[in-house]
Specification:
- It contains 4 helices and 18 strands.
- It has a 7-stranded mixed β-sheet with strand order 3-6-9-12-15-17-18, with no helix packed on it.
- Helix 2 packs across helix 4.
- The longest helix is centred in the first third of the chain and has 13 residues.
- The protein starts with a helix and ends with a helix.
Length: about 200
């Protein structure tokens, strides 16, 4: 009975669908159900989990985004008398309009290639996350994150780097995330050891 209930619950979760608009998603990428994906892009072999909100963001290739993650978003005019959209020209959740001032800046958020973002992390609009970075579960990211940096907390702080400087430099120089599927199949067996991978790649 428990297995049947599990399958039923999983099916209900899947059939909700997702909301994707004005976006470019690679054919090998995946946006799970319950997620909003607006005016954004996602590179090959990347995925985002259930119930994510991704707005005005460019997501690189080979990224792993857990469920409940929020990336980017709209800005509100803090220099106006009110931040409410009822004084702005664009459509919003509240239909009433007391004025129609133009204010809808598209602040782009950039997530580099091979980034792992933990469940329910919040990424502020305009932030740039470097290649290979890891964002801890529940982290609140308000500043740019360096390549291969591990950050966590609220606000998110640098914990450590995934690799030493030599390996980080080698991986960035390799740009393996741009490689063809043929090369990835050839190099894949070395991906469990960055130093072996870099050595074999340089010899190929």
């Amino acid at each position: 009975m428990s297995f049947v209930f599990y399958v039923y619950s999983k099916l209900l979760k899947k059939i909700r669908g997702n909301a994707i608009r004005r976006s470019n998603i690679a054919s090998s990428a995946k946006v799970e159900s319950g997620s909003l994906f607006l005016q954004s892009s996602m590179g090959r072999y990347s995925f985002c989990g259930y119930d994510c909100s991704i707005i005005n963001s460019d997501i690189g290739s080979f990224c792993s985004i857990a469920s409940g993650v929020s990336i980017g978003g709209a800005a509100h005019p803090m220099h106006f008398v009110s931040t409410s959209p009822v004084f702005l020209s664009h459509k919003d959740s509240v239909k009433a309009k007391f004025a129609r001032h133009d204010y809808l800046p598209a602040i782009k958020t950039i997530v580099g290639d091979d980034v792992w973002i933990g469940e329910r992390a919040l990424i502020k609009a305009g932030v740039k996350i470097g290649v290979g970075a890891v964002i801890g579960m529940g982290a609140v990211v308000t500043k740019d994150v360096e390549a291969y940096s591990i950050v966590a907390g609220n606000p998110a702080r640098h914990i450590r780097y995934r690799f030493d400087g030599v390996v980080r430099e080698g991986l960035l120089k390799s740009e393996w995330w741009k490689a063809s599927e043929t090369d990835l199949v050839r190099w894949g067996p070395f991906f469990n050891d960055p130093q072996v991978f870099l050595k074999n790649r340089s010899n190929s």
